[in-house]
């Protein structure tokens, strides 16, 4: 392989997006952020920047695809997790489910407008090309989920024409998924 081509290939593998962590947002206006968005749909483009959800930022930081600075000082994964957990106590459970799904090759995006945690796209489908297949709720194994809560989650999925997926995180951090759907007798 010619040296120039080899060098370009190595540089593309080392793609690291530089991002900023303000009190409310994690974002980047770098061209690498837009490239990563086009390739893998990480973040949301808005106002000439790519904004990352907390779980996306954690995932990319853990995978060494993102460098995050807060007040011009690099922030490490554990520190970011602690800061974000102060804003969302369920973040660790959400992150474990998000990471597991992304590692399996699915695109996972927030689903707040649907009243859910995440929407999940079939493998190979990018948001905007088609609709998400699932609404995903991460739950800790030790959490209590009432029938009322369960029914509400199922109704949200049904009303948005998606299947309900519950990701249960056990004490070891492993995730088990249950798909729920409506049946008409």
First-residue to last-residue Cα separation = 62 Å
What name does CATH use for the topology of the largest domain? Trna Endonuclease, Chain: A, domain 1
In helices, the fraction of residues equals 25-40%
The biggest sheet, with number of strands, parallel, antiparallel or mixed sense and barrel status, is: 6 strands, mixed
Number of helices: 6
Strand order of the largest sheet: 3-4-2-1-5-6
* CATH class annotation of the largest domain: Alpha Beta
* Overall average residue pLDDT: 90
Shape: globular
Give the low-confidence spans: 7-12
Rg (CA only): 18 Å
What is the SS-derived class?
alpha+beta
What proportion of the residues form beta strands (DSSP E)? 25-35%
Number of strands: 11
Whole-number total of structural domains: 2
Order of helices and strands: HEEHEEHEEHHEEEHEE
Q: What is the correct CATH architecture of the largest domain? A: 3-Layer(aba) Sandwich
Summary, kept brief:
The protein has 185 residues and is an alpha+beta fold. It contains 6 helices and 11 strands.
